[in-house]
Amino acid sequence: MASSPSYACIIILLSLSFSFSLVVTVTVTVTAREKQTFIVQVQQEAKPSIFPTHRHWYESSLPDKASIIHTYQTVFHGFSATLSHAEAQKLQSLSHVITLIPEHLRHLHTTRSPHFLGLNTADTAGLLKETDFGSDLVIGVIDTGISPESQSFNDRDLGLPPPNWKGQCVAGEHFPPTSCNRKLIGARYFCAGYEATNGKMNSTLEYRSPRDSDGHGTHTASIAAGRYVFPASTMGYAKGMAAGMAPKARLAVYKVCWNAGCYDSDILAAFDAAVADGVDVISLSVGGVVVPYHLDVIAVGAFGASEAGVFVSASAGNGGPGGLTVTNVAPWMTTVGAGSIDRDFPADVMLGNGRVIGGVSVYGGPGLTPGRLYPLLYAGSDGYSSSLCLEDSLDPKSVKGKIVVCERGVNSRAEKGQVVKKGGGVGMILTNGPFDGEGLVADCHVLPATSVGSAAGDEIRRYISLASPPTATIIFKGTRVGMMPAPKVASFSGRGPNPESAEILKPDVIAPGLNILGAWPNTVAPSGLASDSRRSDFNILSGTSMACPHVSGLGALLKAAHPDWSPAAIRSALVTTAYSVDKEGGPMVDESTGNVSSLFDYGAGHVDPQKAIHPGLIYDISTYDYVDFLCNSNYSTHNIRVITRKVAECSGAKRAGHAGNLNYPSLSAVFQQYGKHLMSTHFIRTVTNVGDPHSVYKVTIVPPPHTELTVEPDTLSFRRLGQKLNFLVSLQTMPVNLSPGSSTVRTGSIVWSDAKHTVTTPLLLTMHQPL
């Protein structure tokens, strides 16, 4: 059996003053004397009958002083335990033990968006109406817990939970059994993995229960399935009606993240419990660095969930705008990047020379005196730490009464403002570094403050060095809607190429993730700082953490509309109907540079819910298709068994082909250039008719530049719903001049249309010159 939630919890580091956090995974190196937690996979069917339960059997394999943290039986077969190097080696030698996976530490990837996505309640035949707002679906949110008293989670007019629901509402500190209702139908917490490494948690700092002491989980849950709440705002910003993607969908929360981070053993326990409980969707705004799938517990847990028919939506990470920063890249997960919406919160800097520089902020509190210019200080001349406004780095004699310019990095953005306020400063201008580019994230600061881009930061610092004396003020303009261009790819959003499987385009899609309003615990300051006494029922955050639950909610709506669709079918509908232009018809741009974005930035494009409900054709994928993919990706039969719990035979004609032949809704060809020979490849794809019974689709080919691309046949004629037809894509290209170690990327697409549906399959061609 899975371990009792009473013994389970995890840790997550969320710098709450950061609206999003960079993705970092810590791997512990084990010496002969140190201990580390391992996730142990066993042959479940090998249990001797003498043992009454699998747990008794597992315990018999452990040394006397070792104890089981969790047992797993749904998406994974085995247990977790803290072991020394010698103990781990001994356990690995047992015949019934398949593998030991070292535990990793994970971190969080941390309205108007329904309207922006076209989900309007007034529609009489839209996605919301057609699915009854997702009322019979259950979304499992693996995160920091939930604040159950939020109006976003009221159960007004909701009926009983779906009949297949088997979950629990586990009580704990400040979370009585009555915390759940017909909206929040399940709540568990898992901390045993965290405590196995760190010892018992300090219950004075966080709740040993599903209650959210952080805010991140409450925010993401409300984005996925929050009820309609009016009025809603944060400190007077973003006033209006708040709602999630699937307002009537039921919620089940699985708290695995704590003050210090999230541990793999607890995350796997949450996956195991969620699937056993009967969720339809799992929303996971947590991640780490990319490792091979058999060492990635999130990938392993997500495979088991997908096999059980559960749609898994995961955040792409906040490591952008650099390349190779996308995370959660397994092809059985839907990986979601972040885009902007058409709303912002301008807070401009006016310099003493009259120059006005745009910035953003959601500061709510006593403001600066209108019309007054204040002394302006850049503390960077005093050293590195002062330029970043780190704790105790500023001289109060220099700071008092001034607006201080701080640079991003190391500590959180809200913490920098707290340092300036503590030193006697009256305001702060927070500047991006060159890596951050021009992307702006609005924060709920503790003093009058605004964020500006990298180029603006350079200009302000130049002004300070030349002016005598330099002065400035900050002008807060509230909420502004209808901003264009939108959507843009958020600067922080994780970018491709896929570090583990170059043949699979990741992220899959993007969704709103910049400056998103969501529910917030009224026990937590909107800045996330303990010194901040302000409270709000809603907060504005940014990150792929916020983009992911948008797709989780949409996945629930699509599942409600099409109960027989697999997780792959749902992803296919979202991918093939996504768009790559802004609302004015221009190409979607990258927020960090203003340049045109690429498939590496947005995957197939921005989600379009109203088109996704009727995609016409879908690319479906079975469990055994994924096994073939792993074989063609050169995973060993042993490692495939770790991921899939299946014994795979990777030889023979059945495995002929390449990893790119997985029936994915996008195409990615990767060539290593050797000499000047013609390079070619092919893809076989199968589409299923989910549109009109009698329909004829014709293909339009947009080849990458200087590439020959053909599709056979060029017409697909369907005679019934559910009918499957194949087509062959052939691609040829000549090498190009590249310096050793460099690559070039070209893009194209294949579009099937029956005059009613448009099914777009993006194509990516990468050519690499080896060293």
Task: Kindly describe this structure.
With 771 residues, the protein is of the alpha/beta class. It folds into four domains: 29-102, 2-Layer Sandwich (Alpha-Beta Plaits), CATH 3.30.70.80; 108-337 and 489-600, Peptidase S8/S53 domain (Rossmann fold, 3-Layer(aba) Sandwich); 346-478, 3-Layer(bba) Sandwich (Glucose Oxidase, domain 1), CATH 3.50.30.30; 617-768, Immunoglobulin-like (Sandwich), CATH 2.60.40. Helices cover 20% and strands 26% of the residues. The protein contains 18 helices and 38 strands. The protein has a seven-stranded parallel β-sheet with strand order 8-11-7-14-16-17-27, sandwiched between helices. Strand 37 (743-753) and strand 38 form a beta hairpin. Helix 7 (264-277) runs parallel beside helix 8 (297-307). The radius of gyration is 26 Å and the shape is globular. Residues 1-33 have low confidence and may be disordered.
